Amino acid sequence: MAKRPDITLYTLGTPNGLKISAALEELGLPYKVERIDISKNTQKEPWFLEINPNGRIPAITDTFTDGQKIRVFESGSILTYLVEQYDPEHKLSFPKGSREYYEMINWIYFQNAGLGPMQGQANHFVRYAPEKIEYGVNRYKNETRRLYGVLDKHLETSKSGYLVGDHISIADCTTIGWVASAGWAGIDIEEFPTLKQWEERMLKREGVWKGMNVPDPFKIKEAMKDKEEADRHAAETAKWIQKGMKDDAKQ
């Protein structure tokens, strides 16, 4: 019989990477970690493209039920795979077909299709663009703020303090890395008190916090306290981001 789980997580401490390690820790699953240095374009190397043809982190490999290796990429797909394969007690999910299950899916798609892309663009125009483009900064910061407002208002109605039902789920895991990094996009979490309470509740969870420090310590909040250090880090990151954009344009 195949040994399962046999998970390797290919990741870095980005909002998308953190959601998977947080979920793995909350589920209590054993896993190996391979740190992918995106500043060196490791994610574009042929061996990694065999795991994720899109050349992005996170991704996982596992031994599937047939005993053969399976690749899973895109964070929403990975989270769905993990709970469908390894969460029979619904620690991070809800019974398939239930109202809570579909509500959970709603918020996963909300993050993957809305909050993540918009906040990611806010990060780019606020921190990494080679020139200050006010339209881009305002467009993506304002849309990110609007989406934070949606989350804040929704959480006001939550009896459990989590996004769905009576306990934490992968809807929360998919969102925490982004909200915990709000300041990097120029978003003031103090404007959203209920969302801030949710963030604090999430980061106090042992599994979530352990996952937030994979593969490196989570330091974004500390970095934000020192403007000079934050600007230095942004400038260094901008160099390889812009180089990666030029390399992608050649393909």
Helix-strand makeup class:
alpha+beta
Shape: globular
How many distinct beta strands? 4
Order of helices and strands: EHEHEEHHHHHHHH
* Spatial separation of the terminal alpha carbons: 43 Å
Neighbour order of strands in the largest sheet: 2-1-3-4
Rg calc: 18 Å
Tally of alpha and pi helices: 10
Biggest β-sheet strands, sense, barrel: 4 strands, mixed
Helical content, roughly? 55-70%
Task: Give an account of the 3D structure.
The protein is of the alpha+beta class. Helices cover 55% and strands 8% of the residues. The chain is built from ten helices and four strands. A four-stranded mixed β-sheet has the order 2-1-3-4, with helices on one face. β3 (59-63) and β4 (69-73) form a beta hairpin. The longest helix has 30 residues, at 99-128. The radius of gyration is 18 Å and the shape is globular. The N and C termini lie far apart (43 Å).
Topology:
Elements: E1 7-11, H1 15-27, E2 31-35, H2 46-49, E3 59-63, E4 69-73, H3 75-86, H4 99-128, H5 134-156, H6 170-179, H7 193-203, H8 206-212, H9 220-224, H10 227-250
Parallel strand pairs: 1-2
Antiparallel strand pairs: 1-3, 3-4
Helix pairs in contact: 1-3, 1-6, 1-8, 4-5, 4-6, 5-7
Notable traits:
alpha+beta
